[in-house]
From TrEMBL:
Species assigned in the record: Ciona savignyi (Pacific transparent sea squirt)
Polar residues composition bias: residue spans: 1-29
Name listed for the protein in its UniProt record: Ras-GEF domain-containing protein
GO biological process, one term: Ras protein signal transduction
GO CC term (a single one): plasma membrane
PANTHER family found in the cross-reference section: FI05912P-RELATED, GUANINE NUCLEOTIDE EXCHANGE FACTOR
A GO molecular function held by the record: guanyl-nucleotide exchange factor activity
């Protein structure tokens, strides 16, 4: 079974693209990075796990780093073609059915679990492992202050709501 991630010396998310006016390539760097191998996501492989983070990075780079409208006022169809190559497989992946049996208990857990904010996650993390350096200690103080302010705002909102209903 082929891997979804391959190591490549060239940056596939930043293809060498040239404008018709300047003929200069637009690339962020020649650094080695992991690339997405779309050929590994065919249904015959049995497992379909796209690395969505890599796709999002590729789309973000193409959209932000390369202009859609070229300096001469024409549309950069090469950029749009590259974007479509990245996004088109998403439609077929959405249509694929899972070969794994549904686990109702797990599905219920995931659907009913609370979604925590970053500040709550940091607080839980610091409860499990105490801050060790000055930065972490300052961060936990800031988190505690922010949580206290949030509670105060909620209490004020509840009191205001009670007054309106009485």
């Amino acid at each position: 079974m082929s891997s979804l991630m391959t190591s490549s010396p060239e940056v596939t998310s930043s293809p060498e693209m040239t404008s018709s006016a300047s003929k200069t390539p637009v690339t962020p760097s020649n650094k080695k990075r992991f690339t997405f191998d779309a050929s590994a996501t065919h249904p015959h492989n049995g497992v379909m796990v796209p690395f969505l983070v890599l796709l999002v990075k590729d789309v973000y780079f193409l959209n932000q780093a390369i202009s859609t409208v070229q300096p001469d006022g024409t549309i950069n169809f090469e950029k749009l073609r590259r974007l479509s190559e990245i996004l088109r497989p998403l439609e077929s992946w959405k249509a694929m059915s899972s070969t794994y049996p549904k686990n109702e208990v797990l599905q219920s857990f995931l659907l009913h679990s609370p979604v925590l904010e970053d500040s709550d996650l940091y607080s839980i993390s610091y409860k499990r492992e105490a801050p060790t350096n000055r930065f972490e200690k300052q961060q936990i103080k800031t988190l505690k202050f922010a949580q206290e302010m949030k509670k105060r705002k909620e209490n004020i909102a509840m009191k205001t709501l009670r007054r309106k209903t009485v």
